[in-house]
């Protein structure tokens, strides 16, 4: 299901994008794209994690309904010198593979990263 799954993912993303500000419920989405609801749930979770779509509770006919909405893609081109990236402490850290938001080892609690940021980009 590998390449099929990525095709389904693109189909789901496009269908949600088509709905725009109106949004679409997950059940409606599964019917519209003809994919099993369980597969749609997995795809939706991935798209939310990647910040491509968002789930929001809205009032519709007096009822709370959870709908999926596309997030605006504000593309920004950013050019960075490779030397600058190599200076970031994370690039030499032995704990990089265990580091992440919400984990025990996290960028938000890393003293080395905080110190580097204050020294190198704090006054930017």
Question: What do these coordinates show?
Answer:
- The model has no long low-confidence stretch (mean pLDDT 85).
- The chain has a two-stranded antiparallel sheet.
- The protein has two domains: 2-70, Arc Repressor Mutant, subunit A, CATH 1.10.10.10; 82-120, no CATH class.
- Helix 1 packs across helix 2 (26-33) and helix 2 (26-33) packs across helix 3.
- The protein has helices at residues 2-19, 26-33, 37-49, 82-87, 111-120; strands at residues 53-60, 63-70.
- The N and C termini lie far apart (47 Å).
- The protein has five helices and two strands, in the order H-H-H-E-E-H-H.
- With 124 residues, the chain is of the alpha+beta class.
- A hairpin with a 2-residue loop joins strand 1 (53-60) and strand 2 (63-70).
Summed up, the domain count is: 2
- What fold name stands as the CATH topology of the largest domain? Arc Repressor Mutant, subunit A
What order do the strands of the largest sheet run in, or round the barrel if closed? 1-2
Helix content: 40-55%
Query: Regions with pLDDT < 50 over 5+ consecutive residues?
Result: none
CATH superfamily of the largest domain: Winged helix-like DNA-binding domain superfamily/Winged helix DNA-binding domain
Radius of gyration: 20 Å
**Termini Cα gap:** 47 Å
Note the overall shape: elongated
* Helix-strand sequence: HHHEEHH
CATH architecture of the largest domain: Orthogonal Bundle
Strands, total number:
2
CATH class of the largest domain: Mainly Alpha
Quote the beta fraction: 5-15%
Rounded mean pLDDT score: 85
- Biggest sheet descriptor: 2 strands, antiparallel
**Helix/sheet category:** alpha+beta
Please give the count of helices: 5
